[in-house]
């Protein structure tokens, strides 16, 4: 009797979180809407069906270990890359090859029904998200072709935007722009995506592009990897009125793990670090190394030094909680940006650490129902709604 009362008491005081959070995490369908491992596969020739621990944030076995059920893989190249559509298909080829070799672990899916079937088989359901409208090369036929290959969202803009939509980078540059928001062709893109059942991604979009989309779309939108502007004044984060508009639209905001988007003190700390190592950075750039990989190299080399500027997991939870308090638990999710960011928050070192988010949400007192929504249920609802006529 005493043992029974002790267990009950511990449960009510929150001292028995381990079993409950692990059980919730295992039973939930965990969805990440933004992972950039395909960029590294294309640029560096790595195959993520081998152990890449210490090299990347992601590989297939570690995804399984972290309880990931659905991964939308980012298809990305810089906006000034020539033949972007060809590059997109090259990245898609790399996932297709991995999936063909590992049918016992990962299956590329075409929609909600197939996704649910694959998840029930305890395999990872994979789709593509094309990051940047420049990759369709101003051709609706190429948009259709990418959809047929498994792209289930298109991020309308990246920092270097297509001619038909302005990005957050464009609209905050101070430069005189030929237009703001969606052009007539941009509106055609949005309408065609609605027809296809392809989710419109407003991450990276400028404010005017965002509001043009919200006025035009007939389907719920996503922000595949964005965080909260009120907490961190980054142009990449969403303002309160945008969050409310996405909630009203029935969409979802997938929180980005990038330290610069979740910690208001990070950029200044990183600037000090980069200044300290400027000579080495300049030397690496002279070899032709891309800026992203320069940062990656430096952060690995000076891991002990960089540890002190990484924000805690609590910052990620703060952004999730902000959305919940503003509009409710139906509108938050996870868009890690793993392998597209050089640094991650503490306790979120790689894809094995998704359970830490569940653990933190349990500790905050959120219900199993709400946690399940945040981990993936909200995104699945939006995916299903986009597929409906």
How would you describe this protein?
Strands 1, 2, 3, 4, 5 and 6 form a six-stranded parallel sheet that branches. A three-stranded parallel sheet has the order 7-8-9. It has helices at residues 2-12, 17-27, 37-44, 60-65, 84-101, 112-120, 140-148, 168-171, 184-196, 207-216, 240-249, 259-262, 266-276, 278-286, 291-301, 303-306, 313-327, 354-363, 368-387, and strands spanning 31-35, 70-76, 106-108, 124-131, 151-155, 199-201, 222-226, 252-255, 332-334. The longest helix is centred in the last third of the chain and has 20 residues, at 368-387. The protein has two domains: 29-263 and 311-387, TIM Barrel, CATH 3.20.20.140; 269-308, no CATH class. By secondary structure, it is α/β, with parallel strands linked by helices. Residues 3-16 have low confidence and may be disordered.
What distinguishing features does this structure have?
alpha/beta, 389 residues, single chain, 2 domains, disordered N terminus, three-stranded parallel β-sheet, six-stranded parallel β-sheet, 19 helices, 9 strands, TIM Barrel
């Amino acid at each position: 009797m005493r043992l029974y009362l002790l267990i009950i008491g511990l449960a009510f005081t929150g001292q028995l979180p381990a079993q409950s959070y692990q059980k919730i995490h295992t039973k939930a369908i965990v969805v990440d809407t933004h992972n950039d491992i395909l960029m590294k596969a294309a640029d560096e020739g790595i195959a993520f069906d081998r152990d890449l621990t210490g090299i990347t944030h992601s590989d297939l076995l570690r995804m399984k270990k972290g309880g990931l059920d659905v991964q939308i893989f980012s298809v990305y190249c810089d906006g000034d890359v020539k033949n972007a559509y060809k590059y997109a298909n090259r990245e898609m080829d790399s996932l297709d090859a991995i999936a063909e070799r590992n049918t016992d672990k990962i299956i590329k899916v075409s929609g909600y029904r197939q996704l649910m079937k694959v998840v029930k088989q305890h395999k990872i359901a994979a789709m593509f998200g094309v990051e940047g409208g420049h990759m369709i090369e101003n051709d609706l036929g190429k948009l259709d072709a990418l959809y047929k290959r498994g792209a289930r969202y298109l991020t309308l803009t990246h920092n270097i935007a297509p001619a038909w939509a302005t990005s957050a980078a464009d609209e905050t540059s101070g430069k005189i722009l030929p237009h703001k928001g969606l052009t007539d062709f941009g509106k055609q893109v949005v309408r065609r995506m609605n027809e296809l059942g392809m989710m419109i991604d407003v991450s990276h979009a400028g404010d005017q592009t965002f509001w043009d989309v919200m006025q035009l779309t007939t389907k719920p939108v996503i922000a595949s990897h964005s965080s909260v502007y009120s907490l961190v004044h980054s142009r990449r984060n969403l303002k309160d009125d945008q969050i409310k508009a996405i909630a009203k639209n029935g969409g979802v905001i997938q929180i980005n793990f990038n330290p610069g988007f979740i910690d208001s003190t990070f950029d200044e700390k990183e600037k000090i670090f980069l200044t300290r190592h400027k000579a080495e950075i300049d030397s690496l750039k002279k070899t032709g190394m891309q800026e992203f990989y320069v940062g990656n190299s430096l952060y690995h080399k000076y891991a002990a030094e960089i540890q002190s500027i990484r924000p805690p997991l609590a910052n990620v939870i703060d952004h999730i909680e902000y959305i919940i308090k503003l509009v409710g638990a139906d509108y938050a999710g996870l868009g890690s940006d793993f392998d597209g960011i050089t640094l991650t928050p503490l306790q979120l070192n790689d894809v094995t650490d998704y359970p830490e988010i569940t653990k933190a949400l349990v500790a905050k007192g959120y219900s199993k129902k709400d946690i399940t929504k945040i981990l993936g249920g909200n995104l699945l609802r939006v995916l299903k709604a986009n597929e409906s006529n």
